[in-house]
## 1
Amino acid sequence: MKKFCLLFLLLATFLFSPLFVSAQSQDINIQRAAANRVLANRYRPTLLKRFLKYVTYNSQSSETEQITPNQIATAKKLYEEIKAMGHNVQLTEHYYIFVEIPSNLPWQVPVLGFSGHYDVTPGIEGENVLSQVHYSYDGNAIQLAQNRVLDPAEPANAYLATQKGKTIVTSDGNTILGADDKAGVSILMTFLETLAQHPEKKHGPIQIVLAPNEDVGRAAEFVEETPYRPEIAFDFDGGSNGRVIIENFNARQEIFTVTGKPGHQSYAATNGYKNSVLPTAVLVTNICRLERLPDQSSDRQGYAEPHHISHPDGKVYITEVDYRLRGYDAKKMNEWEYNTDSISRKVAEQFNVSIQRRTIKNYSNVGECSHPQALQVTQNAGRHAEVELNIESARAGTTAAMFVTKGLVGAYTIFTGQNNPHAYTEWLSEEDMFKSYLMALQLTDEVAGLR
Ligand SMILES: [Zn+2]
């Protein structure tokens, strides 16, 4: 009896030990990931079919129009498709598509957000896209229309060389393909379809937004009119090869206005005339000592560039310098602002002019305002989904970085399979698009496990 009690005690200790609990949850994770792969494989043909359909929707945005009729038509089609799946979907006044899926878990987990954009760049031809699917790609250079060639031997196309035997998609060469971001849209739409058809799949609250006008830099413009407020978020608009962008530059415009006094130069000694160009030159020279110029900056270094100088309304006694300030570290940028203030005060005093500075925050580093467990969640999702991830930092902005300026959580940018965006030689890796969709399913599981 005594022996039995001891055995029972030992067993109970083991069952409730952290080792057993973590081994058990590890097992559940592996089972779920395997189930996700089975599920994802079933939707793989649908995903490609969907992509081939969406690239035929011309949804080019425009630098001059608030929204193009083609974008409106595309938004309406996507909206109807989501509605037909049975989801709760809204199409907002400025054509943002918003989908809300309530949690089916008995406990609380963070709200998960996915985003993408349905517009395509207006930069090159985008009407009547004729996609070409290269099943089991032979690895040779692809001859496109108008003597355009997609050549895997070119260093810029090195990744294409790895796609031999896989499925890739190009346009016929007369237009863009539009994988940027029809790949992301196809992934998210197929994800929505998967959840609609598999209500047994456990997940927390999910919000999805599809934005217009991303390729003209205005994806965040009216995002606040949607209820999109996730606590952990991912943007499906990245490249290929498992790339995940977890941080980007902060971008600020710092505009210094140097105001002298108008008057005829000949009588400057008596009429109070004050030139604005010389103090501006001195100001710029001194500020340039504070931070690197773009051509001196690489890797993790930021830069400050006096981008352009102008006289507002042609008034030469006022000179404006538009500085572009870029860097990962917002604190360092605040220091720069502080130091330029003291420089400008000294210059203003020296030349007896007034100098004002105003700041426009263009975008922010998602890495500085993402969910504290975002990196862990992403890495776990990659490991469980058996997708090799390449975690990267971008020396530029992302759509998610623009969302941050509207107070949204910082989102990582997930690869979608798009390559050579905004070019006639744009192409899609079907395998990467599929892996990205699998990541969406797996990220959903990982976030559902955040208690
Ligand atoms: Zn894009």
## 2
Amino acid sequence: MRIAVLGAGPGGAAAALALARGGADVTVHLPAVRTEKPCGGALPAYLLDGLAEPALAAAPSVKVETAILENAASSRLEVPLDGLRIYRRRELDAGLLAAAVTAGARLSEGRVRRLELADRVTLRGADDEPKRYEWLVAADGALSRSRRRLGLEPAAASVGLGASVTLPAGAAAAALVLGFPDLGDAYLWIFPRPGGVSVGIAYSAELLSHGAARACLESFLGRHLPAAAGGPRYRYPIPVFGRQTLPALRLAAARRVLLVGDAAGLADPLTREGIRPAVRAGRWAAESLLAGRPDDYPHRVADGLAADMARAERACRLFYEDRIGQWMVPVCRALPGVRRVLGDLLTCRQPYRGLRRRLLAGALRGQ
Ligand SMILES: Cc1cc2nc3c(=O)[nH]c(=O)nc-3n(C[C@H](O)[C@H](O)[C@H](O)COP(=O)(O)OP(=O)(O)OC[C@H]3O[C@@H](n4cnc5c(N)ncnc54)[C@H](O)[C@@H]3O)c2cc1C
């Protein structure tokens, strides 16, 4: 069985690696020129456990041990973090792809321009040469051509407005800062990363205008890191898990396409974290194909993600609409037990399942 993986971000690279390790005939289609994906680049360190790939081990990253949280009243608090790593995406993606190539995945360089879906999947690049496969793992990101080709609506998207900033020599390395400005479901970030920082604001366009989001970001940076204020900003969708996610996966699988990562709309609606779900989905897609049961893939995503993402959506309403977000800083200051739970949530060690129970226990213990 010949399998194509379209895209070599975390979702595509993880799928290709698992397929190649399982002995599949897999070709990764990726652009000839690799650019930096607009992204904070933060992920839990354990996600990469078991990938003893030299290129990945050599990829520079920053290990962050505390986060500063700031609410709309400018109240601040430090939360301990255990095992959060921040990468430049170009290096993280290159490391994951190198692991897949070492395991036996082939590369086909050049942007895919056309997809034909019939009894097989045909991909064509600029040379119009047809490349035929039995299955396609479509991990081509938030602007997915595959998703459009399937006639699917775009996934529900948040927006990330931000920049990767190289700090001038001598500028202090920033701490990790998260700001909760009480504007719709927006939050702000400063992530120290190799050579500089990633800064930005994540928000929903129906709740906050672009101008207001930008003004909020610049004022946040003015307070915390003036060296990164002003300058060009990117704006890029973050497709979050929603009602349309699973039906889209089923429809695509019926046409020999397994949608993975942002192409599927899998990011967490509260934190907008998308790297971990993309990697997990890439592995599930590969395992379903290797088992000869690609139709199982939507079930794997449903079993592995749907319940927690539904809880994330509920937590999102509590956090942003019911103002728990604004109470979080004073509550965490008073209750170290709650502070620890929050740190675990930020490093993905605490799933949404059981969160309420642990928060209550932390509050009751009061230490
Ligand atoms: C501003 C911002 C900040 C974020 N911060 C974080 C964060 O800190 N932590 C986190 O976990 N998540 C974060 N996310 C989300 C995260 O970036 C995505 O969820 C994640 O990159 C999804 O991975 P993916 O492999 O599905 O897609 P992508 O990483 O977008 O990879 C898709 C790949 O497909 C390739 N491709 C696309 N079309 C074609 C084509 N026609 N032919 C060949 N190749 C093609 C692209 O070049 C790309 O390499 C952030 C998102 C944004 C916008």
